[in-house]
Recover the amino acids of this structure.
């Protein structure tokens, strides 16, 4: 019987392997099962707008608790095990024989075989954070097997399972809800605001060369109207919409699946959130109105395309959604917003175009930086280089300098505006030729808000210049970090003979924790680092034998300030 079962498994694998090599099964034919044996209630949907990235899966709520069994959705083998202090935390990747990979993230624990493989690799490499690729077919699981348990590891803010499906060949992420997984959703999306944008200095919206944001009102469960009667446009114009979706049994404001814009009965814009490549996820800052996000905590989605937006999600995009109005006419427009279940919300609005209304052209101050050029800026103590295609559109670059204060040893360099997104990192060089030798290696370039340090950049010296790279415009200055990280006891006693773990809090107030390691009697031991809770934990794993021991923990920050803690205990 076991022989027949094994033979059937080999035959099935062979058939499905052909699909992975010669053609992928369509999502509707995969017959995956759900990754959890509890109702799928979602805290996050695919393609949702997150900070600097699209959400690449679905977030399944776990009733505010950890420890639910995670199920293999189909036969397959473990192709990757990744552990990081932030991000996905403890994550597992299963490659299936039908051309797909399933991903399970923010886990608490792995199946015993996977956990044993992981800990051996961590001790071999003497690292907690690892990215491992087991040999094919070493860790094999069948559909329905328990492969892990849900948790709250990494940058997760509450217990849940982050679940993805990827194309095994390209690693493109695909909306999991296209594969037949069901999360109850009977409610239409919600529309909050209509946005109308002037796309050059000559465009006019109600007499101004400025964005017009118009709140909307719900008149039926699926129909909306704007709260403004007269809208008069002229020139190059774009539109945007502020929307979210709520599923049943959860209060979370999730992303929508589809946005369409019809203008005078012509479809000019449409996108569906079916899938995307990781290489394009940061273009979210071009799809989204980044200025509104930073300034007003709103997330409108633009229905036009910036010149350097390389997103592939657009199904229909006439003239890049950038519409020229140069006549006197009345216009009708309709937004159609859908979730993946087909629940629909519509916003109808009317406006006029009138090219007879003339107002003075607005010219913005600053040096013109073109998105497809290398752009350089030089001032007395600072120089910048922005590589070609780092910007999404041309900008009028601005710079000013403020006097340094508090712990700064430099001026405050105001590099353009934090409300302007940038795709690729730009180079910052700040001259600092008067710094004494004792403090030279402790100098670091930091991002500031209201004169206070928000975060620090990895900084190096080149001659008498501090150099770093950043993906954020804003205020920058130089700080001396001479303070070592702190290590404090969280759970520890002299007698740990009955304990399952020992833990410590570790924190660095400026440049940030860089390395962490621990030794017992001179031998390296594994520390789990939970970055969001600033906690280092050693779970007793059999490596420390009974008896009297000495523990030493060593933590450094980005400029190599070091803190050591030595303790004795009995195991």
């Amino acid at each position: 019987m076991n022989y027949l079962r094994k033979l059937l498994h080999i035959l099935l694998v062979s058939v499905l392997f052909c699909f992975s090599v010669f053609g992928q099964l369509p999502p509707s034919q995969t017959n995956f099962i759900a990754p959890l044996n509890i109702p799928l209630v979602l805290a996050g949907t695919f393609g949702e707008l997150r900070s600097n990235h699209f959400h690449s899966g679905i977030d399944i709520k776990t009733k505010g608790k950890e420890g639910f069994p995670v199920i293999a959705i189909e036969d397959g083998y473990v192709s990757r095990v990744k552990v990081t202090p932030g991000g996905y935390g403890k994550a597992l990747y299963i490659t299936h024989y039908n051309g797909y990979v399933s991903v399970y993230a923010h886990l608490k624990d792995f199946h015993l075989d996977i956990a044993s493989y992981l800990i051996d690799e961590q001790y071999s490499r003497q690292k907690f954070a690892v990215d491992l690729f087991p040999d094919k077919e070493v860790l094999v699981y069948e559909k329905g097997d328990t492969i892990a348990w849900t948790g709250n590891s990494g940058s997760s803010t509450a217990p849940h399972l982050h679940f993805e499906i990827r194309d095994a060949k390209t690693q493109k992420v695909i909306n999991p809800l296209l594969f037949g997984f069901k999360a109850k959703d009977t409610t239409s999306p919600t529309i909050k605001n209509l946005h109308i944008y002037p796309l050059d200095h000559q465009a006019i919206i109600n007499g101004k060369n400025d964005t017009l944001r118009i709140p909307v009102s719900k008149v039926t469960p699926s129909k909306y109207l704007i709260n403004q009667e007269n809208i008069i446009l002229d020139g190059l114009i774009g539109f945007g919409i502020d929307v979210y979706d709520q599923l049943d049994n959860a209060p979370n404001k999730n992303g929508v699946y589809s946005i369409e814009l019809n203008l005078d009965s012509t479809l000019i814009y449409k996108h569906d959130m079916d899938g995307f490549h990781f290489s394009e996820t940061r273009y979210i800052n071009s799809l989204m109105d980044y200025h509104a996000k930073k300034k007003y905590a709103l997330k409108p989605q633009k229905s036009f395309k910036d010149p350097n937006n390389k997103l592939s999600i657009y199904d229909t995009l006439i003239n890049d959604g950038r519409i020229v109005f140069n006549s006197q006419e009345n216009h009708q427009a309709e937004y159609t917003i859908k979730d993946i279940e087909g629940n629909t919300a519509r916003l109808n609005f009317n406006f006029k175009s009138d090219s007879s209304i003339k107002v003075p052209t607005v010219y913005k101050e600053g040096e013109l930086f073109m998105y497809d050029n290398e752009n350089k800026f030089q001032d007395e103590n600072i120089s910048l280089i922005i590589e070609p295609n780092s910007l999404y559109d041309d900008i009028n670059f601005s710079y000013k300098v403020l006097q340094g204060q508090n712990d700064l040893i430099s001026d405050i360099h105001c590099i353009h505006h934090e409300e302007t997104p940038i795709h690729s990192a730009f180079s910052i060089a700040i001259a600092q030729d008067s710094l004494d030798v004792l403090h030279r290696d402790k100098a670091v370039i930091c991002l500031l808000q209201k004169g206070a340090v928000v975060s620090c950049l990895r900084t190096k010296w080149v001659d008498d210049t501090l150099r770093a790279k950043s993906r954020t415009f804003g205020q920058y200055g130089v700080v001396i970090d001479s303070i070592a990280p702190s290590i404090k006891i969280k759970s520890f006693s002299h007698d740990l003979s009955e304990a399952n773990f020992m833990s410590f809090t570790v924190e660095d107030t400026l440049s940030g924790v860089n390395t962490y390691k621990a030794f017992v009697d001179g031998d390296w031991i594994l520390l789990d680092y939970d970055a969001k809770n600033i906690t280092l934990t050693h779970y007793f794993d059999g490596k420390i034998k009974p008896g009297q021991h000495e523990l030493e923990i060593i933590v450094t920050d980005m400029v190599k300030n070091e803190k050591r803690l030595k303790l004795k205990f009995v195991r």
Summary: The radius of gyration is 27 Å.
